[in-house]
Design brief:
The chain has 263 residues and is an all-alpha fold. Helix content is 71%, strand content 0%. It has 14 helices and no strands.
Length: 263
Amino acid sequence: MPIPEDVTGEEIDKDVRQELQSLPKTLAEDVAKNLVMVARLIDEEPERAYAYSRVALRLASRVAAVREAAGFAAYATQKYGEALAEFRAARRMTGTVELWPLMADCERGLGRPEKALDMAGAPEVQKLDKAGQVEMRLVAAGARRDMGQLDAAIVTLQSSELASNSVQPWTARLRYAYADALLAAGREGEAREWFAKAVEADRDGSTDASDRLAELDGVEFTDAFVEDEDDEDVAVAADDTDSAEQAEQAEQDKQDEHGDDKD
């Protein structure tokens, strides 16, 4: 896989760079560059990010950061079996529980929501930080919805974090998930209220809450470019009509002239 010239490998997190010090220098640099490409592409071009992650994995499969990056790339491309395997490997290497919610969500992706719910009740959840616990709650609610348990999903999302007025990194996604569950349960009025609250908290556009809110309010968005094209088509059609009328009038004038000459 080609690496752009502006990528040096120094862009990676210092903790990851430290992990790579166990490798020969040239190899560490190659792995670092591929990890940079994974991070750079994973949101917009996940398939390319996945390809770079496989290169890094081939070069340094015994480095936890590489297994974790491979897991994220596989997760982004919905290769949940691969993602789960990589996350498990990274967890075995590091002993941390940070990846627990993602592992549970992979179980959902594999069609095993019951397993995700089991993980939501495991002791590992208590070891997660606040962000991790909120993420686990989101996964558990999703698992409930997978199983058709809408009311249970709504109850799962009801928490002190949801009720809090302070905005945290997870606030917009939590409010959005709650609004979406309410809407699925037919509670449109409450859903609109929570989509509005999600919009207030969504400072970086991580959700489409504003679009969902507008949809509930009956607002329709039109594509300006398409409108311009339509206007142009109308103008062309009008010009064509004018040209046809002018040609018809010219022909009529000629006929009138010939008629005058005969007289």
